[in-house]
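Lecture 7 notes: from sequence to structure.
We start with the chain below.
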Amino acid sequence: MRSPELGGAGDTPALDIDGRTYTYAQLDAAIERWIDRHGPREPVYDASMLTIADVLICVCAAARRGIPVIVENPDARPHRPSIPPSAFLLVTTSGSTGRPRALARTAASWFDSFPAFTTITGILATDRVLITGPLHATMHLFGALHALWRGACVTDDPSQATVVHAVPAVLREVVHTAPRLRTAIVAGIALDDGAAAAAEGIALIEYYGSAEVSLVAARRVPEPLRLLDGVDAEVRGGLLYIRSPYSVLGAPEWFGVGDLAELGDNRELTVRGRGEFAINVGGTTVVAEDVERILETLDGVTAAAVIGSPHAVFGETVTAAVQLDGASIEEIRSRARRVLTKEAMPRRWVALQALPRTGGGKVARGRLKDLLT
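Predicted structure tokens for the same chain:
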């Protein structure tokens, strides 16, 4: 293997994306051309404005040279006052709760987790790995770089894909256009019953993590989530804190992820949703993600998102934004009453043509709150 970032060689397919195909030999040559074209003295690469294929060539060139590379959303770039000396990847948070924040990580903070990720997912060098979102979303960049490290082929063609990385909402659609899928890898938000049902007959892997601490826990559905070896967790006041060798530069030893969680035996982890989106309804805690998962199982609901709204008597009540498919709000409200507790039942319903989402497919809760308040 000529370069540590590539796990394949010769005529083995490496990229089939953006209408361009590369074998590993051709990809290796493209990386060398990139280095030659951009000169040996360029201190940092910026891949943010590039096509997916060129992002991966640029990132691999940076890895080969040992210099930092920026992969950000060009439409929402954070202020980055300096670059830490040991930084390799300059990425951001997803921006699901507000504007993306700048992060920096070493190469080892991702590459060192690749063997464990391979064991969890079972990805083979013969697989074609479908990436379903932009590479400035770290779950997709991680998935693509892992595939190249493994020697697999990264693709944007569902018809040829054998493995997919997707958030649950995207997985629901992808399975209808990807007849060769054998494995689906879900992250970003918790797996819901509808997405799991859509992937029936496909090996389903779910992992939990964040842009700041990378991989935290994983499972083969229907097994429970378990912490990765080397990753420690504590629950303080109901909120999850992580100590990990995969954390970004500058993170505290114990990083507060911001999610409500519970720890069980055998390093089992149950994540209940964002702590900041826990809704206090008359002293009862309602977790937004729990309500969303239930609403998305109802006939006529394509997608749902929930926030808390101020209330003079109860403190907060639940507001639900829903994408509907052939049903009225009145019908959905009636169905919801049968499955939700009184406290979790939305007092206000808003039908939207599409929920606001980040580039990675998560609900952009900051923008949603602006829409609904």
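Points to note: Residues 13-267 form a domain with the Rossmann fold fold (CATH 3.40.50.12780). The chain has ten helices and 22 strands.
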